[in-house]
Write a structure and sequence with these properties.
single chain; mainly alpha; 2 domains; globular
Length: 283
Amino acid sequence: MVENRPLLSILAHIVLLLGVAIVALPVWITIVGASHEAERMLQTPIPMLPGDQFFVNLRQTLWGSGLEGTNTAPVWMMLMNSMIMALMIAIGKIAISLLSAFAIVYFKFPFRMGFFWMIFITLMLPVEVRILPTFEVIADLGMLNSYWGLTVPLIASATATFMFRQVFLTIPDEMLESARIDGAGPMRFFWDIVIPLSRTNIAALFVILFIYGWNQYLWPLLITTDTDMMTIVVSIKQMLEAAEQSPQWNIIMMTALLAMIPPIFVVIAMQKLFVQGLTETDK
């Protein structure tokens, strides 16, 4: 039985509201900054209420008319680059991890667990550790300033492979035997039984991996020298370092606001499956 303690309930709500305020304040300042003129954002104190230039700043930001001197492509193009990169990373990681986990769980071959632990050990070697040899390989293959160069080195995922292996181990052996009796081959069993049972886990991983790909900074900064291949995260840094002029804070804030929208949309659209994939244990 849970005791009714009004004082603790009030304290809990105060702490919760304080946490929400701390998280929401930078987002609110971003929205406010995106709705004012550049001159107003250089004055003190900074405004705390929205202005009337939101759609003007939106048009200038999306189509590049407000980005003179920033050495960046139009924001719509950088949003497209980030979207393609995030989708290729998320889909590629999930596809490779599903197949590798399926092979480890359902196929018997020599050194099977050895290969699994070799994959798992790669968690200790993130891109930042192997960035120089990886860059040399990508450069030798002629993949600089390309979507393949942005995504291929980031596609393999030991974490996703481990997670799908654990999910596949919970599938009863009776299902595999039933599929064999019905004449289903390995790939038929994979598509008709394994994939549907892993749907919520795939959705949860997709959200996490999409945000991971969207927020990449170091690798796109290194691999892209053409402004047309810049991602939205890299572009914000470039805008802050605009040569021979003060940062256009209204454009920067609008760019940051636009950069928030796709991850938020993905989380909201897949929220139900995301929560189920993280909490569901029974199959």
